[in-house]
Amino acid sequence: MSDVILETRELTKEFKGFTAVNQVNLQVQRGHIHALIGPNGAGKTTCFNLLTKFLAPSAGRILFNGKDISALKPAQIARMGIIRSFQISAVFPHLTVLENVRIGLQCTLGTSFHFWRSERTLTQLNDRAMQLLGEVDLAGFADTVTADLPYGRKRALEIATTLAMEPELMLLDEPTQGMGHEDVHRVTALIKKVSTGRTILMVEHNMNVVADICDRISVLQRGAVLAEGSYADVSRNPQVVEAYMGSSTDGNLAGAHG
């Protein structure tokens, strides 16, 4: 059995009397692709913000590799190997694809960002940057200005820049949001590919994506864990079907993109 890389214990976040995340106990197994799903307003993104310390928990604990990280700052979390990609594509639009990845790689030099250094000092990173672009099928776009990339390719670039920071745990926030079918298929295959030797925790609305690639799924509703298990398990859970479909009739979630 895999060991636990990330664990939350009674994780809770309250905003002026409203409980957005309610005593969530989560265990992410090393090497798994684990999805957080749930209807809009279920607390998924708030949960992500707690895990990456963009929000401080009201109560509860977060453990990474057995170490309590509840009091750490976002930069400390990132240095430990928890790297998040954001719901809105977070790349520099006026830099080339290669330059974007190279900025991510500067973190691996063990110094602060080298914006003031000559470009020559960064060419040592080009080989690794090209290797990462190859991993996400963007090697042919290396010299393309990022603003000119199609939307799905921008998300692939974002995954490459996340990989550049050498994550032990990748947090992907709705990686296929707003995509057409072809892009969804490409990015789903990409996530599966880059998951080798890594752990991924993702928030995702598209149930077909979740069904295709996730080892384990946690369903949130009103800030609490409603169900957990494989896709086959949770898709047959009447409470989960009701939460998504507003009905307790038998069925599955294949068509529910919530």
TrEMBL record:
<dbReference type="InterPro" id="IPR003593">
    <property type="entry name" value="AAA+_ATPase"/>
</dbReference>
<protein>
    <submittedName>
        <fullName>ABC transporter ATP-binding protein</fullName>
    </submittedName>
</protein>
<keyword id="KW-0813">Transport</keyword>
<feature type="domain" description="ABC transporter">
    <location>
        <begin position="6"/>
        <end position="247"/>
    </location>
</feature>
<dbReference type="Pfam" id="PF12399">
    <property type="entry name" value="BCA_ABC_TP_C"/>
</dbReference>
<keyword id="KW-0067">ATP-binding</keyword>
<dbReference type="InterPro" id="IPR027417">
    <property type="entry name" value="P-loop_NTPase"/>
</dbReference>
<keyword id="KW-0472">Membrane</keyword>
<dbReference type="GO" id="GO:0005524">
    <property type="term" value="F:ATP binding"/>
</dbReference>
<keyword id="KW-1003">Cell membrane</keyword>
<dbReference type="InterPro" id="IPR032823">
    <property type="entry name" value="BCA_ABC_TP_C"/>
</dbReference>
<keyword id="KW-0547">Nucleotide-binding</keyword>
<dbReference type="Pfam" id="PF00005">
    <property type="entry name" value="ABC_tran"/>
</dbReference>
<dbReference type="InterPro" id="IPR051120">
    <property type="entry name" value="ABC_AA/LPS_Transport"/>
</dbReference>
<dbReference type="InterPro" id="IPR003439">
    <property type="entry name" value="ABC_transporter-like_ATP-bd"/>
</dbReference>
